[in-house]
Structure formats: C-alpha cells, structure tokens
Amino acid sequence: MTDLLQTYPEANPDPGVTRQVLSQNAALMVVSFRFEVDAEGKLHDHPHVQSTYVRTGRFRFTVENETFDVGPGDSFVIPSGARHGCVCLESGELIDTFSPRRDDFL
C-alpha cells in the first residue's frame, strides 16, 4: 500500500493561487487549489473533463457563457473543451478532479 502513497510539490500557477496534486494515475487526477481573495483562475480550456468541489470559500465561476457563484459544499462538472475560469470572493479551497490526468501538472 505504501507504494501507492506519493507526495507532490505545491505550485503557484497564478498570483494568490496554490496548486497541489493530491493523487493521480493515467485515468484520473485529484488536485487542491487554494485561493486568496481576488485571486483568479484565468479563463482557459483543456480536453479533460473536470469536476469541481468547493471545500471552503466563495467563488464566481464562468463556464462558457454562464456565470454563477458557488460556496462550501457546491460542486459541478465542466465538460471537455469548455472555456472556464473563476475569481475568489472569499479565500478558500477547490478540489478538482480531472479525467484523464493533467500531465501538465506533473
């Protein structure tokens, strides 16, 4: 079992944002994103399906042409190829799951 446990370094992809891979294999990746107030996850897209769970904080998300606010306990799925991003309204943490794995995060 201990061969399955790995620790991944933190990264700072944008000002006020800390990213850390929590677990991964070729088919699936779980990532923690911690945001300070007003930090942004800039608009982007990728071929991965993404599920986002708001662990703490408040965020304003844009997915394609829809904008909505989310808070603790909220979750949603972002389809493959959908342009999306967020602004942090109250500092917090998002838990994102990607399928397949985001090799660019390793």
UniProtKB/TrEMBL annotation:
Residue intervals of the Cupin type-2 domain: 33-91
Organism: Allosediminivita pacifica
InterPro entries: Bacilysin_H2HPP_isomerase, Cupin_2, KdgF, RmlC-like_jellyroll, RmlC_Cupin_sf
PANTHER family: H2HPP ISOMERASE
UniProt-recorded name of the protein: Cupin type-2 domain-containing protein
Coiled-coil annotated residue ranges, if any: none
Pfam families membership: Cupin_2
